[in-house]
């Protein structure tokens, strides 16, 4: 399993533009066979911060995700949309309990 937690802080003047970009990334992820889970959350106590939880089958699946045109396009927009570079943390699974919504 290849797991990433990503924190994105939107530029205040571009806040309304970032969420649709992240929703589109999640929609792209929905069709990728190597993705176990791709979740986008927004902090309630700091609405300019988005948290992405990305679970890939393996590192190769992550590499395939990163090579997709919609992902590359979104990453290309991050410089203009974010107040700071993404904070990416690699994680190891400990326990998981999920149900489809």
Automatic annotation (TrEMBL):
<dbReference type="Pfam" id="PF03992">
    <property type="entry name" value="ABM"/>
</dbReference>
<keyword id="KW-0503">Monooxygenase</keyword>
<feature type="domain" description="ABM">
    <location>
        <begin position="2"/>
        <end position="90"/>
    </location>
</feature>
<dbReference type="InterPro" id="IPR007138">
    <property type="entry name" value="ABM_dom"/>
</dbReference>
<dbReference type="InterPro" id="IPR050744">
    <property type="entry name" value="AI-2_Isomerase_LsrG"/>
</dbReference>
<protein>
    <submittedName>
        <fullName>Quinol monooxygenase YgiN</fullName>
    </submittedName>
</protein>
<dbReference type="GO" id="GO:0004497">
    <property type="term" value="F:monooxygenase activity"/>
</dbReference>
<keyword id="KW-0560">Oxidoreductase</keyword>
<dbReference type="InterPro" id="IPR011008">
    <property type="entry name" value="Dimeric_a/b-barrel"/>
</dbReference>
């Amino acid at each position: 399993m290849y797991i990433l937690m990503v924190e994105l802080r939107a530029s205040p003047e571009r806040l309304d533009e970032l969420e649709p970009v992240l929703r589109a990334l999640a929609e792209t992820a929905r069709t990728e066979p190597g993705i176990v889970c791709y979740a986008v959350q927004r902090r309630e106590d700091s609405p300019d911060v988005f948290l992405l939880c990305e679970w890939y089958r393996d590192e190769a699946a992550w590499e395939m995700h990163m090579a997709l045109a919609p992902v590359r396009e979104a990453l290309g927009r991050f410089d203009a949309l974010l107040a700071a570079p993404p904070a990416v943390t690699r994680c190891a699974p400990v326990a998981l309990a999920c149900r489809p919504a």
